[in-house]
Amino acid sequence: MAEAIMDRLRDAGHRLHRHPHGRGDFRRRAGACDVVMMLLPDAPAVEAALFAEDGFAAALPPGALVIDLSDLPPAEASANAARLADLGALLADAPAGTGPVIDPVIDLGGSDAACARAEPLLRLFSDGVVRAGGPGSGQRARLVRMSDMRMADRKSDDPDGLHRLLRLMAFDGPAESRLGTS
After folding, report:
1. Residue 21 carries which DSSP code?
2. Distance between CA 84 and CA 90 in Å, rounded?
3. Per-residue DSSP letters for 1-18?
């Protein structure tokens, strides 16, 4: 999948640097980039690529955008966005799937500024970019969509959508935190 994405970006005239793990020499290269796109296998790999001692986050120039195509828990994506914001960079979470083919829908989460910059790049390799909300929302929307697809495959007996609503609420955290009560 990464090769297909890179081909589309190259065809659109973007200059690319590739490193299979996003670390080491890539840190130096990332410091000269406006946008870094990563597709890694899991949250620990993303954490290491960004924030390990040889991670590239600290080398990013102010205003740089990181587009994370990896599948992560929504809380991890939100935390990564906050940490990058502290460094002056933006993060868009846009999980593109885990198989050899890009998912037909890419759920895009992040700040308005991050999403505005990420969306045109994502549209170079997917017609199905859907803005999901703030940081972590791309991951959250993908989880809900994938769960809904599995439920549809099982011919769900949830015609009023109650189970889907409960899943959404579970992803957003306890009601008390949203209402500002203790």
Report:
1. T
2. 6
3. -HHHHHHHHHHTT-----
Closest CA to 135 of 175, 176, 60, 83: 83
pLDDT digits 0-9 by tens, 59-103: 999 999 999 999 999 999 999 999 999 999 999 999 987 666 667
Rounded CA-CA distance 147/181 in Å is 30
Residue 144: both structure tokens together: 């809900």
End-to-end, the C-alpha distance of the chain in Å comes to 45
CB 115 within 8 A of CB 72: no
Q: Are 136 and 111 in contact (CB under 8 A)?
A: no
Distance CA 100, CA 20 (A): 16
- Cβ atoms 7, 1 nearer than 8 A: no
The DSSP code for 76 is: H
